[in-house]
Amino acid sequence: MTSLTRLTFATAFAAGTILSGAALAQDDSVLVGQLADYTGPTSFVGKQYGPGVSDAFKQINADGGIDGTMVELDTVDYAYKVPEAIAQFKKWVGNDMVALQGWGTADTEALISFVARAEIPTVSASYSAHLTDPTGKNPTTKSPAPFNFFYGPSYSDACRALVQWAAEDAKEKGIEKPTFVHTGDNHPYPNAPKAACGSYAEELGFNVAPPVVVPLAPGDFKAQCLTIKDTGANYVYMGNLGGSVVSLIKSCNTVGVDATYMGNPWAGDYQTVEAAEAQNLIFPSSTPFYGADVPGMELVKKIAENGGGQVGDRPTHHYIRGICSAYYMKEAMEWAKANGGIEGKNIRDGMYQKADWVPEGLEGVCSPSNWTTEDHRGLLKVTINSGTFKDGEAVIEKIAEIDVPRRDEWLGQ
To answer: How far apart, in whole angstroms, are the C-alpha atoms of residue 178 and residue 105?
Structure first.
């Protein structure tokens, strides 16, 4: 494509004209942008998920691409900075990007109107429930998100699953009125499920203590832990990840907090359990762990072996979620190519074509998912795990599987 054509498209986009650069893309290759955090505050997990996406597309191209069309994946480390994400998105649109693999909640939510106007289907690693209402039919939805998707339960639904598990756990322990507390930075990512999960916890009979602000960066959190201790919390939800979670658990152990720690989808993995020397860290997942005896693990191993070697020989399940995200997009792009061309609206519509959808070759790895034109809550089945540090390593055990209700009032929340 000539630079003049790219300039014309970029000018049209800046002026607010709805025009998909994908419609101008060549048949032999298409551009997919990837926002990754390899150096910023969420890089602890970004260094696992990001390579999952990029290694997957490398394998997709090696296997023939999108029915012969190669994917040019442009990965940019934006270090979790929203202005950089927006600027990069505009640059990619000017270069005829057809789809985006996104990352953080703050930037993904900030880009909702941009991706809708440019008609760029986005599969993000933000699981904010605010991205799940494509039409705005729920009057409480912040903003309709017609081109936003993600693989896995939303932060809100994952937290609802955790408190549902905690309610049963409290009964078994004889705790009549358990106390729940949300912790996390004052940031869109940890804040995303705060109101929704607290409301459901109250519905299930919990006493909900005031949220405790805990920075996303690691530090000495004894002061926050003393506040948690004063609430009498039985169940502590951690909205942060990585070093912050490790610091919180260690600090709270130091001051004698007696509570069960529950993490969001990014807060639990063998690395966190081992670094924190955690005992019974409860966290959700939407894939099995690396090496599990399921048919699709052979493809996961192949992708890892043929990838860039960035995650070593022991990838976390965050890496596997990145693979699932890439392969759902790949199959949506295949449908698009057969139904009018690999361009934004067609790729988006490709996300609606299958029920109980598992990408080919990833059976037993990616959980059956369903996206519809009115509901982008693709997955409501949540696996609950317990991670314990024992004999120098993490021992992770599946302890429950929760089906979260698909309530209309929870759409977008």
So the answer is: 30
CB of 366 within 8 A of CB of 250? no
- List residues bridging with 262 in a β-sheet: 237, 282
Output phi, psi for 371, to 5 deg.
-115, 135
Q: Are 213 and 191 in contact (CB under 8 A)?
A: no
- Residue 299 corresponds to which tokens in the numbers above? 């493809």
Residue identified by tokens 């055990």 is 397
Q: Which pLDDT value is given to residue 332?
A: 98
Q: Are 161 and 402 in contact (CB under 8 A)?
A: yes
**What's the maximum distance between 2 C-alpha atoms anywhere in the chain?**
71
Dist. CA 84–CA 78, nearest whole Å: 6
Residues forming beta bridges with residue 384, ordered by sequence position: 284, 400
Instruction: Flag whether pLDDT at 16 surpasses 60.
Output: no
Task: Name residues whose C-beta falls within 8 Å of residue 87's C-beta, 6 or more positions apart in sequence.
Answer: none
- Read off the pLDDT of each residue in 278-292 and give the average, rounded to a whole number: 97
**In the predicted model, what is the mean pLDDT of the chain?**
93
Determine phi and psi for 182, rounding to 5 degrees: -95, 135
What is the rounded CA–CA span in Å between residue 204 and residue 189? 24
pLDDT above 80 (res 260): yes
What are the φ/ψ torsions at residue 52 (nearest 5 degrees)? -60, -45
d(C-alpha 19, C-alpha 86), whole Å: 18
Flag whether pLDDT at 91 surpasses 60.
yes
**CA end-to-end span of the chain, whole Å?**
41
pLDDT in tens, 183-201: 999 999 999 999 999 999 9
Residue 393 β-bridge partners = 390
What does the alpha-carbon distance between residue 205 and residue 166 come to, in Å, rounded to a whole number?
11
